[in-house]
Amino acid sequence: MTLLDDFFWRAIIAGLGVAVVAGPLGCFVVWRRMSYLGDTMAHSALLGIALGFFLNIDLMIGVFAVALVVALILFFFQRQKMLTNDAVLGTLSHASLAMGVLIISLMAWIRIDLMGYLFGDILAVSLIDLYWIYGGGILILVILLILWRPLLAITFDSELAQAEGISVLAVQLLFMLLIAAVIALSMKIIGILLVTSLLIIPVSAARSFSNTPEQMAFGGVLIGISSVIIGLFTSLYFDTPSGPSIVIAAVMFFFAVQILPFKQFKY
Amino acid sequence: MLTTVDNNVDEIGFEISNQTLIKSQSLSFLIGEKKILSEISLNISKEEIVTVIGPNGAGKTTLLRLLLGLIPASSGKIFRKQKLRIGYLPQRAVYNPVLPLSVRRLMNLTGNFSKIQIEASLDETGVKALKDKPVSQLSGGEYQRVMLARTLLRNPELLVLDEPVQGVDYMGESELYNLIGNLRKKLGCGVLMVSHNLHVVMASTDRVLCLNQHICCEGKPKDVTQHPEYLRMFGLKTTNTMAIYNHHHDHEHHFSGKFKKF
Fold it and tell me: Using CA atoms, how far apart are residues B97 and B101, in angstroms rounded to an integer?
């Protein structure tokens, strides 16, 4: 079989691309305690898919746009003091999920495999998706490389970073944009409901053997790649949905490193 | 001499000497209708240690954040020397242990400094031995010294320190203050410091600003500590040391946040 003609190898290559981007980006999601934000943006992806079908545009663009709007609304809400972030996130998360389901159910003329979008489908990755994932992925990594130092400084102490001349607002907005992009890119493989797991679980597993922020990012990439490979083969042979299969593989790494003694690592 | 600042300062020209690092005039900050700070006029010159003291909620940290440009003032003017290099030591934040950082890596967080520069700077604050330690394992005093060393890498003209001895044990406190005093001499930088610890601050400070939403009194430590406003603010807790402190304010504070003139 030629590689890219085969659905399975397309899924593998797409999954590897996504894992490489998710590692370094996921570090910041974990360090900055933003996993719930990622979740909220991911849940809004169903609304993005619905809009994508409705407007007949590429679904990734729909997902990216809606995730970005949700992030901006959240940004706006962070400036008021009446509600906590937590409550706003919960509201947005469910509002967008409900709207997505509603719009999809109203479009009776379209038959959508909802399970596939919610939990990932290895049959779903097209050649065009691969171009998106690799083109977009490289762009995300380049931007992240430029933002790496300022983002680390903001993560350590945002006021200190601002006092030292970093434009915190701009960096934070760009970071939101990157998360929205990576959610759009990895949605087909992992599924909407599980998409943030690839951002969070591999780097969390890598934490216990990392001495520097960079090691944690690389560790996250390695574990992410391994999880994708194991998960997709499981999905192929046992006919399970691809998203949960990848997530379970990552979770196994997560628990394995908790048990293994990493004495030489102390940071 | 002691200067008691009236709330209604006459509009004076914004004169800046070439010694001035930071100067504010009639600086006010409101949240909604609530006045957090009003009519703050101050001046910090080269090689001068200015300590801001005041009770909780007096607006000490807010004042620093205004002067640093982290939040916009509601009214008033701020002058900063052009391209002023500021070394900022925020109130100790809770360190997030998920971020794996060694002391050495922390020193390199925003800039690219050589190993020699980093070690020299850590040596300056007496914590060179900690260079490979994880940040999460530092004690309060060690952490503050490391953060101080970090600000030195930027060769600051003005050190801004928000409660630098917070979380530092009693012995470490005076050592840390000595260190700050020595650094001022060595680097020739100005120091703006916030503190609620009084007697130790007094020793190394050139000028004290007594803050409670506005500047209640200002002057040399020994003058300020004799001021009745100062006594009222800090009196009950440190009655014994208060005997030598005595001076006069022209107004008093109420719980409502308003103050009235005698």
Answer: 8
Q: Could you tell me if A110 and A53 are in contact, meaning their C-beta atoms sit under 8 angstroms apart? A: yes
- CA atoms of A267 and A90, how far apart (whole Å): 33
Q: Which residues, numbered 144 to 203 in chain B, qualify as contacts with chain A under a Cβ-Cβ cut-off of 8 Å? A: 154, 160
Asked if A31 and B96 come within 8 Å (Cβ–Cβ), the reply is yes
Using one digit for the tens of pLDDT, what is the confidence trace for B9-60?
334 455 667 788 888 888 899 888 888 988 888 889 888 999 898 888 888 8
**How far is it, in rounded angstroms, from Cα A203 to Cα A30?**
8
- Domains, in order of start, for chain B: 21-85+156-250 (3.40.50.300), 93-155 (no CATH)
Under DSSP, is residue B197 helix (H, G, I), strand (E, B) or coil?
Answer: coil
Q: CB of B102 within 8 Å of any CB in chain A?
A: yes
Q: Please state the φ and ψ torsions of residue B14, each to the nearest 5 degrees.
A: -85, 75
Closest CB to B98 among A150, A164, A207 = A207
Are the beta carbons of A140 and A21 closer than 8 angstroms? yes
Query: What spatial distance separates the first Cα and last Cα of chain B, rounded to whole Å?
Result: 22
Closest CA to B181 of B88, B49, B56: B49
Q: Identify from B110, B133, B143 which residue to disrupt to test chain A contact, counting A C-beta atoms within 10 A and taking the largest count.
A: B110
Phi, psi of B41 (to 5 degrees): -120, 120
Are the C-beta atoms of residues B167 and B140 closer than 8 Å to each other?
yes
Contacts of B69 in chain A (CB under 8 A): 163
> Is B93 an 8 Å CB contact of chain A?
yes
A vs B: CB pairs below 8 A:
61
Amino acid letter for position B161: L
Q: Closest partner residue to A156 among B70, B109, B136, by Cβ?
A: B109
Which domains, and CATH codes, for chain A? 3-193 (1.10.3470.10)
* ipTM summary value: 0.78
> Strand, coil or helix: what is B198?
coil
Q: How far apart are CA B125 and CA B146, in angstroms?
A: 7
Task: Indicate the DSSP class of residue B223.
Answer: H
Taking contacts as CB-CB distances below 8 angstroms, the residues of chain A near B88 are: 159-160, 163-164
pLDDT digits (tens, 9 = 90+) for B158-187: 999 998 887 777 777 778 888 888 888 888
Instruction: Kindly tell me the sign of the dihedral angle through the C-alpha atoms of B222, B21, B149, A146.
Output: positive
Tens-place pLDDT, residues A93-132: 999 989 998 998 888 787 888 888 888 887 788 898 899 9
In this structure, the number of other CB atoms found within 10 A of the CB of residue B69 comes to 14
CB atoms under 10 Å from CB of A170, counted, come to: 11
